[in-house]
Queue: 2 jobs
Job 1
Amino acid sequence: MTSFNRRTVLKTSAAFAGASAIGFPAIVHAQAEKIKIGHLTPLTGFLGALGAYAQLGIRMAQEEINAAGGVMGRQLDIMSEDSVNPATAATKAQRMLDRDGAAFLMGEINSASALTIMQVAARNKRFYLQIGARSDALRGKDCNRYTFHVDIPSHVMVYAVGEALVRDNMMKGKKFYTLTADYIFGHDLAAAAKTFFDANGGTVVGDELVATDVTEFSPYLLKIRQAKPDVVCSNLAGNQVTNLIKQYAEFGLPYPIVGFNLNTADAWAAGEGNLSGTWPTVWYHTLDVPSSKTFVANFIKKYGKPPENHAWIEYISLKMMAQAMTETKSTDTEKLIAYFESEAQFDILKARKGYFRKWDHQLMQEAYPFTVKLKGKAKDQWDQLELGGAVPAANESLEVLSVKKEQNTCVM
Amino acid sequence: MQFTFLLEQVVNGLVLGGYYLLIALGLSLIFSVGGVVNLAHGAFYALGAYISIEIRKYLGFGPAIVLSPLAVAMLGILFERFLLRRFYAADPILSLLVTFGLAMIAEQLIRIVWGASPLSVNMPAVLKGSVIFGDFLFSRYRLLLLAVVVGVLVSIWLLLHKASFGRVIRAGIQKPDMVAALGIRLQPYMTAIVMLGVGMAALGGALFAPITIVHPAMGAEVITVAFVVVVIGGLGSFWGVVISALLVGVVRGITINFVPAAGEASMYVLMFMVLLFRPRGLLGERIEKFET
């Protein structure tokens, strides 16, 4: 594993050396009054496919904002790079603040990298909008006052799917076999799942940690077969999920499979007929909301394929930043923090607007459990998911699924 | 019962080892004959997967598995003729650098042509699902994969040990100067070996595409395992690579059975142990031209 990582790092750093030789002078010579934003997201490794969508989303928002005259009359300049791994992410974040003149930081999908970027933000006392990482710890015990979190946290995903399972009689008295991604995000998700199982009468008969670079799951599938569980449950991330789903279908094990984390790109990559079960999502392109449909149509026109949930979340994140900068007439970290902590409302292309909670800096928003469309029901290769109703429901507070203040471990 | 479980993991590991073998054997052959560590080997594996997806759109699964490796083998001719050939006699660091660069170029080209998002293909419906022999569960598709690997392996062995082609190759590995003195040009043989090697890697990619996802960095993922297999097996030894590939597959399976989190690390521990006691690898031969 070490040699693989080192090689990937070598390769990407060499690629960046090349890219900077060709691409960066344009930035250096650009007008001084541009608002520079440091953006990091994984473009290689097991989350790379998601990061590719993230870049498309934030680029689209950037072009729209700049075409409309920018923010405070200044154009936005997103400096986007591959975060590679937690150590490199921190180094790059520091460099973006020190040398590249970034006003603040945005991005990330990998929870471990997000954590190191959060530390850089806190050390430098600069604003960081943490967009796509879902680990509870980031907004819990590892929280800091310079970081705000956009994506739904692990425990909300567990609740979204868990309640659907309770409703479908797939929880009480059932034996679960879980596979967990072996890094901070997976550990968090597994802990949240365990809490939910305990509270609702499910038991865990096996839990296996799976390294993030695993692509071949047959030994795990054999172990599952030996354990004979009632339900198989995935706490995996990125490519891991896709590979598990494909190979689960290949081996044709009889137990239903569900999961507490899935990104649309992973579902698409699993291929038709392989995915089954109940999963959570933060947004899907078939969502029946007019503003969302406009975004989807524009995205397809621009890129020739529908947006993935990481494209959506990066798009709305830059729009939120633009709103915050416009309202505060500033890129100053303290003013931005004050604005976001004021629980200002943001249009996030969903039925209900979202807002950040003051005490844990988490965006409160709707999430959706989904099941898989029956064969023949899908309109095209992208139309695979059957969205369930939004959770929390329209008549509930947006905070009902989220950790309560009294259980909270976040101290700013 | 525990024993049966373990045996099932062993058998499954052997199947997986067969797939490692497809990639590692070519790497070993190219190194043994040409003295070049082909860091671009993974790129040919990735290309095999991508090209098989393209061919499958028009001709279906079967032809894709056959034609994709052939197409990549043709690329192998260009690769050997215009690039590798210049480095056989050169400092090994140069060939290391040039194939490393080629691997990066190939990965980026794949990203430009096919996009960064992973592609996914399904296996034919008839091959989906599993069969149960006694207590053992097998994926049908992987049984097919195993049959193909065995077929390829037997062909390569016959080619290397029963045909005159193989005699020249084996002599060329040990004493290239003597072969030259006998009036035999090794270069066409080297072209053939590179074709064979990258073709096998492409076959691995085409066969594994329906099992996993096809993405630009897949070559980088697989080449590490292939290297470990070659190093454990020992250079220049056909059976060394075979045994090593199967061993890596089995050790990984058994480790996952007991300590799942250590599954991916197990092969490196195995390599460490082997190198500690047998620096030349399990069945590695002493190759004079590499000992200076």
Job 2
Amino acid sequence: MSTVKPNYTRPLDIKNGRVDMSHGSGGRAMAQLITELFAAAFDNEYLAQGNDGALLPSAAGRLVMATDSHVVSPLFFAGGDIGCLSVHGTINDVAVMGATPLYLSAGFILEEGFPLADLKRIVESMAQAAREAGVPVVTGDTKVVEQGKGDGVFITTTGVGVVREGVNLSGDLAKPGDKILLSGTIGDHGMAILSQREGLTFSAPIVSDTAALHGLIAAMLDSGVKLRVLRDPTRGGLATTLNEIAKQSGVGMMLQESAIAVNQPVEAACEFLGLDPLYVANEGKLIAICAPEDAARLLEVMRAHPLGKGASVIGEVLDDAHGFVQMTTKLGGRRVVDWLAGEQLPRIC
Amino acid sequence: MCLAIPARIEEMTTPGNAIVNLGGVRKEISLALVDDAVVGDYVIVHVGYALQKLDQEEAERTLQMFAEMGQLDELRSELAGDAA
Amino acid sequence: MKYVDEFRDGELAKNISANIAREADPKRNYRLMEFCGGHTHAISRYGIADLLPSNVRMIHGPGCPVCVLPIGRVDQAIRLAREHGVILCTYADTVRVPASDNLSLMRAKAKGADVRMIYSTQDALKIARENPQREVVFLAIGFETTTPPTAVAIKQAAAEGLKNFSILCDHVLTPAAMHAILAVEGGVAIDGFVGPAHVSTVIGSKPYEPFADDYGKPVVIAGFEPLDVMQAILMLVRQVNDGRAAVENEFTRAVTREGNLKAQELVAEVFELRDMFEWRGLGSVPNSALKLRPKYAAFDAELKFKVDYVEVPDNKACECAAILRGQKRPQECKIFGTVCTPENPVGSCMVSSEGACAAHYSYGRFRETV
């Protein structure tokens, strides 16, 4: 007589198994992948509904939706991985709109041959990030592409949130005289990635700053200061984001280089590779533009939060039809902080 | 093609290579173009090669020169002596 | 960062700035050319122009090897990648240089050419070792700073018997370029040169002595940091005031009169002079560039593959030629900032961030309007 349980199903071989085409076909193999890997990790009442779409409660207030695709390589880096990065990134995009992030969706494009052990690591990292942030992943999708057609895994996350009553944040609201604040050091995420790729090692490693900023933003909104713009300087760095805002608002800016903090290993890595930290990606920092009379109070509120303790006032908004973002250098001269031209190429000269 | 950084030799690796350190960042580079470089020396590094050793005494002297208040005659005779 | 931070100190900058202001004669203008692209970058990035009195002006010279690379040479590299299926290794700065047929190395890569950006010639050798069935070609550009690393790679390839490695040799020489600028009909209105930093660590200060002697122009070799550049400017102002024309060395911590003899010997062993070489903006200049010696012919991609150099004239509206000579400023070019921008560079001056036009566009164009 067989001693095997009647409803026994062989579990996924996480340790040695790899993604194959059947995992994306819509059949039993895919259902198993979803149940044992994704649903087990994300585990919430909405996902448990098990339908094509998640049925969510009515939301009171204006809705914000944001989406981000993540193609970072390497997938695992000091301070994080593509999983938590995809959760933080979309939460931040929703939160900088002045909205409380409520739900996330996650779409995965998996490359045939991708180790299940790595996938599990990524999914569990996402689940942990989502839990800590209090924003569940309520629905998702999985596709598999042939070997060679994908970089291991690509993740797209979409987030939905509700904007607080009375809050109105937009990139076109900066006014001459407004102050510009930055929540901490720049260049950490981009250099953590690049350094790994370029074989730089460190006495003190550069760690990605990837983090969910909605708690910090909530504290800033609670303080009642007159906030105009909130944005997180991701790809293209601080310089690109400020130029975007300057253009949207039709203003100029004047920054103080000495007020912009860069961690020493980041600065050194940039020297080594011929890069400018102003253009290097960040994943756990934000720029805030507020009315001048509120700057001191906003700074205090930001510094009181763990993710804003390195905050500083880095400059102010100017009346300038040309929309130049200028900077007073550490040496006292002036320069323009221009848009990033193409991909930031490491300089040899 | 001038970007070069001054870095401290931390460790010799395979023959002709060393790990250098600038501000806590370490990278392996080639010493094929400099003789007698030892751990503790500072070298100018360009595209993965040490080009020249950095003379630390001269570096100090240069910094002092920056701080001088331009005593014209004194400086000029000093410079004439230092030329090349 | 030791030997970096101290040379960027704001207080010391103020001091040197005050010295320059005090010693520059208000009754005359000082036109100084910084030859090296790295110095152009330092001046722009730190806003050094604001720390100089208005009668001391910096003119950007051609010391950016990417800027002086003729279109035809980039075409060669692109043809090798696209038609001969080689793995084309290059320093990153070169990939956006505009070439013929609306291509650049980056665009060729997008069309399927195997173009790889590398940090060091050692990386190119590694790629050759790891891909024995493919041909690997390294686009060897640069002044004397970058030539020794290529020489080391060639010797190593020879010692290892690497059969699939070769270079497109576009190494050029600094003193020849300086001659080409100065030997212009009627002379050129430049009062002195800030000499290159790292080129000089290799070649020493000796090669600049003829300029001081024959042309009567002072040369001060400057280190790479902004304070070095400012101190060199002060030293040049002093020479001009005194009517002297000597070679002086501000970068004593890394430059001697003789330079790096080991590096020089290595280069002499591997390379020899080309009779003529076309420079973008300077035309054909004799004895200004290098090619591999016959002993190393096996590593010469121009011999190994059929990729003749075809001269391509510059865009008619492009003023790179005059700008590289310091005769015109970027803003005097009709297409500057409109047709020709860092995103869509027409001439090489706009491609590399050291190019006079790119530097002015990225860091300085607000000065025209603000």
